[in-house]
């Protein structure tokens, strides 16, 4: 049985789609997701700097769409492995309670003992970490798995997983 640390934002919760949806609702402009490829997170939108402000807006973390396949694969992983949801939740004041409520809604099979909200993930001790940010994977001592997101498209140094089906194929017994 492996210990698996799974990031929320950009891995379970589709942060990029949330940026796009919120931008369209507020500014009337639909941004194509592929136009964000290779650009730092929160950049690439017509009005510079406004997307970062969404991170401070109540409801942003609470209403993110679920990344397809994550619920089914994480449930299966949870049945075979020791799974922890590890999310940086200290920088944005409302994110802590919103992330917890989001997890309870979309991943009710994850118990409170399996949720770790932290500032920096260098404290995480696991066999695998699935994350979309190099800053979290660079200090990880286990096997890092980079979950594909527009902001990390040009990163080459880590084993990449593009979908939850790929995660399942890699980490679930019988696949």
TrEMBL record:
The active site is at residues 7, 9. GO terms for biological process: pyrimidine deoxyribonucleotide catabolic process. One of its GO terms (molecular function) is 5'-nucleotidase activity. It comes from Chitinophaga agrisoli. It holds the Pfam family NT5C. Belongs to the 5'(3')-deoxyribonucleotidase family. This is 5'(3')-deoxyribonucleotidase.
